[in-house]
Design brief:
Blueprint lengths: L7 H13 L6 H24 L1 H15 L6 H25 L1 H4 L1 H10 L6 H7 L1
Keywords: Membrane, Transmembrane, Transmembrane helix
């Protein structure tokens, strides 16, 4: 696997390294695990964020294809329903593709515990 998309075993091993160390210990003990988790989380969140627009376009196309002869409020409700279904399906698939997203809350809390001033979601919110 690439550095940006580690396997579940690698993510679990890096989490174990950070669980066993302390921030005041030498960075050599936990620095590599910290850097790799930080990079993987940032990449996975970027992919998840950029997948929202294509999923919205897919939902719009599906509504246009399957709508009735006349446009009414039911088509708008169908669009919203399809949008939610496509987004949830996309998030489920991305969680299966990126192991770090499955452990996102745990990784985020570990990064914050080790003094991350730029946890990915906070960094993106500031830009």
């Amino acid at each position: 696997m690439s550095l940006n998309n580690p396997t579940r075993v690698q993510v679990a091993a890096w989490i174990d390294v950070l669980d066993g160390a302390e921030p005041q210990h030498l960075r050599g003990r936990w620095g590599e695990a910290y850097d790799r988790l930080h990079t993987a989380l940032r990449y996975a969140r970027k992919v998840r964020r950029y997948s929202a627009i294509p999923s919205a376009l897919i939902a719009v196309v599906l509504v246009i294809i399957f709508h009735g002869e006349v446009w009414d409020f039911d088509d708008i409700y169908n669009l919203l329903g399809l949008e939610m279904a496509v987004l949830f399906t996309g998030y489920f698939v991305l969680t299966k593709m990126f192991a770090v997203l499955a452990e996102e809350n745990r990784v985020q809390s570990l990064l914050r515990h080790y003094g991350a001033q730029d946890v990915p979601h906070e960094e993106e919110a500031m830009q």
